[in-house]
């Protein structure tokens, strides 16, 4: 399955979005990071073949790593194709990594990738410092989203009448 790559007005092309993260977590802070990739991974991302579900960021010995991101093997690749779920190093400044590590030490906070995209030919990942939602928070979010949808539909119908 090849996913259609979306473009926005900033010159970025979204490859994958972690919609589950927005449903399961409150996003407290966002940060953009580069990702160290192999050639076949970049080619596969240009085809839109990535999945961020159940992925997370871990800080080990002063370096940040992106874990469990599934980038499918390149369709025209050969024996040099990459492992789809290998750990990938994030390119961040030392202060940013120290700040992320401090945030992780606080109770109940995690770091997850929110979006994977191209900016100026380079692959970037938007990572978020998140806190898990309780079940009642998820229900409240769904109710609010449904109410907003109904209000927008009512406004649209009143303009057409």
Kindly list the characteristics that best describe this protein.
Small Protein B, Chain: A, eight-stranded antiparallel β-sheet, two-stranded antiparallel sheet, 4 helices, 10 strands
Describe the structure.
- This protein has 161 residues and is α+β, with helices and mostly antiparallel strands.
- The chain has a single domain (6-133), classed as Small protein B (Small Protein B, Chain: A), CATH 2.40.280.
- Helices cover 32% and strands 37% of the residues.
- It has helices at residues 19-24, 39-46, 94-105, 135-160; strands at residues 6-7, 12-17, 25-35, 50-51, 56-60, 63-67, 70-71, 88-91, 109-119, 122-132.
- It has an eight-stranded antiparallel β-sheet with strand order 1-2-9-10-3-8-6-5. Strands 4-7 form a two-stranded antiparallel ribbon.
- It starts with 5 loop residues before the first strand and ends with a helix.
- 23% of the residues are buried.
- The model has no long low-confidence stretch (mean pLDDT 86).
Brief characterization of the structure:
This protein has 161 residues and is of the alpha+beta class. It is 32% helix and 37% strand.
Alpha carbon gyration radius? 18 Å
H/E element order? EEHEHEEEEEHEEH
CATH class: Mainly Beta
Strand order in space, largest sheet:
1-2-9-10-3-8-6-5
CATH architecture: Beta Barrel
CATH superfamily: Small protein B
